[in-house]
Records
---
Amino acid sequence: MQKYWGILVAIVLLASCKEEETTKTEVATIAAIEKPVTLEYGFNLDNFTVEQDTVRNGDSFGELMLQNKVDYPKIAKVSEQFKDTFDVRRIMVGKPYVILKSKDTTASAQVFIYENDRINYTVVDFRDTVLAYKDKKAVKYVEREASGVITSSLSEAILDQGIDYNVTNNLSEVYAWTVDFFRLQKGDRFKVIYKEKYINDTVYAGAGPIEAAYFEHNGTPFYAFGYEADSLTIMKDYYDEKANNLRRTFLRAPVKFSRISSRYNLKRRIRYYGYKVRPHKGTDYAAPIGTPILATANGTVSESTRRGGNGKYVKIRHNGTYSTQYLHMKKQNVKKGDFVQQGEVIGWIGMTGNTGGPHVCYRFWKNGRQVDPLREKLPAAEPLAEVLRPDYFKFVNPLKLQLDCINYPEPPKEEELLTLNE
């Protein structure tokens, strides 16, 4: 009896082992099936050998591709037929790129991916027919509220709240026509609603445009709500709680968030010239070399040249009443006869002509006479059309309520101030 019992146990154990082996095989098969696919830029990266790098000094698209075994005719086709999509002459030092290579012995480049910025990229596909196209990474937008009270500067108030510095520039653009950011007062305060951008849910990609804002300057409140009534303009329009356009026909300044180094002054005296009266009929905005200079209003370029103490400059005729001029450029970005829109880059800050430092001298003509633009009551842009107002108010009323409910940060307590002063 014992003998049969032993055989029975052996059979059970053997069956159990086989069942366990079967289970392990099934688990392994399932694990193989469920292995995640590495998808990026719209490609399964597991199908390629991936090389990541950045453009370096001396790199060119042609040389990079030749080094990675792409035939010259394909390279020539990209440079000749896809200029509007990917200008091979304009790849910039420091920009990341990815090369997807074949996994065979040739290891030749199949796809080249150039990152224009953290979100947008350009793909050059060499497989079969050469193809180039633009695309963007999936972006998640997260709404954020912020507020602050100005004690020294707007940028400091922004950074104190842990807000992206770009929000400073965005706010200055929203209120470019209504708030003089060169004369902010202690106690001025703001509230803002905007969206933060994230790639793959976790990688921060910057702050999006401001959706709604409140700015209190010298005790005067200014609401601003982003509303796209016209998709043809370069700069997004913002309207107040009564549907009045915050934009004016002219920007207050031709550079973003710069500082005034010299104002319009007809009685200016300079020691170098023996303190004789030397009128300064422009407003100087100091900024680093290479800072973009913006057209302050729509118009036609009447001059784009270099002359004497003016250095390289651009002059724009806006209408029969107004003209503007921008001096001492490093380089112009427009030519005579070009039509430019408000906010368009027309050149870059430089030091050409008579200048002691990098800046743009901004000159403003009204009816053929140079005037101080900071003292001019500039005409307002067209208000929102009556037919659009019902939809506008329906859109902004919840945003206004949301702004009104945002609290300002608590001022630091006395003991915290003592700690900061030590």
---
Amino acid sequence: MDKIQEEIVEEFSAFDDWLDKYDYLISLAETLPAIDPAHRTERYLIQGCQSRVWVDARMEEGKVWFGADSDAIITKGIIALLVRVLNGRTPQEILDTELSFIDAIGLSANLSPTRANGLAAMVKQMRLYALAFANSARAE
């Protein structure tokens, strides 16, 4: 597990019950930088989420940077964690990164089935962006 994921696990270990962890997720939602309003459209909407989640990505100097937003506060906290872990990595690093913090903090075990499906859809979309950037770089 890498340093950022270890930090997340440590932060969540400070809380004993899931109500406190949900409160922490809500506070993390407030740390997510605002997404460009032009990216809050159907084109960037993630399919498979009960709430509305938008994710965009750009490549700068070989690294991928994500923008994201959600209309649901807990979901926004979850996407903030994913952005924190995956931002600033190469496409290959994103494809190779095992998101072990998800299970380590108990997130997957404490989400409703619809939120768990949404989490899987967010991860899938972020990896699809990385794959597209990796393929684009190979083609150049």
---
Amino acid sequence: MRTTLTLDDDLADALKEQAQRTDQPFKQVVNDTLRRGLSPALVETGPRYQVSPHSSGFRPGVDPMRLNQLNDSLEVSGFPGPQAQ
């Protein structure tokens, strides 16, 4: 089907660059881009990210990112005088 389509300048530039990069005709790049946009199920996805848990030396409830805070509170408790909580 032949039709006239008005594209924003930034989109036209991006499509032209894609056509040059992939060495494909502009028409094909536009059609492929529209197909991907209208059919999200056809979008190619990479391998899924998988988390591999490991055991650490910390007990549940100990946040290793807050160990410096624990160290600071222990140092403060060693000073004589009123304690700041």
---
Amino acid sequence: MKKLNKRIDMFCYRHPRFGVPNLMLYIVIISLAVWLLSIMDPSKTLMSFFVFSPERILKGEVWRLVSFIFVPQSLSFWELLFFYFYYWIGNVLEKEWGTPRFNIFLISGVLLTAIYGFIIYFITKQSIAVTTYFIYLSMFFSFATLFPDVQVLFMFIIPIKVKWLAYLDAAFFLLSMLTQSFPFNLLPLVAVLNYLVFFGDDLFSSLRSNKARYNKTTVNFNREKQKIKYEQKNASYTKKCAVCGRTDTDYPDLEFRYCSRCAGYHCFCQDHINNHIHFTE
């Protein structure tokens, strides 16, 4: 996963215009339109043209590979809150990651879910109810990983940190896997896999770092800083990103910072200061 994550970073760096800006806004607008039309269509005929169906896709209805993204989870008015909440999360993630990486995250989640739906169909000859519900939950996991201490109003009243809601979501994922029959119970795991592609190495590195704290002393940042300055004394640059390799000489308008969570004294550009695998040694 580490190599895959770095390849994604390099792709985003080399193709800064890849993807659709404000993608989550378009998804929410179309989903809201489908939700409104479905309310006015008690027979749910319209909805049947959007749902994921491997059998119909193989017969030529290829739009279902994309259209199932816009199928609402329910027709209740709580769905409006769902639309707003995940638009907000998607907007924050896009600003944090950049448009290319956020688009890749959603596209990979949709592809993994669709592939799983086809695998189940070929094994059981049954079409399962594949939706974006677990994809959105994995998106929430990503948000909670980046901003664990952000508070939201649970039930519009109780302030609670996002990380605690993420723990509840994790429990829901586990419950879904335990209560459903095989292989249908693996759909939540597919969504989690999408999260691990982007955060797995960072998560495991954090666990290893916490374990190593008992055996290592605190990093002397002043000493490490002097070491880096000495090594860069004869270099043509002052700061260099440890992820993409950009320097302040080649990109004078780019902002560079040092990460306090990494072991040692490592510099990152503004695109990777909050999005990199922390050094543990």
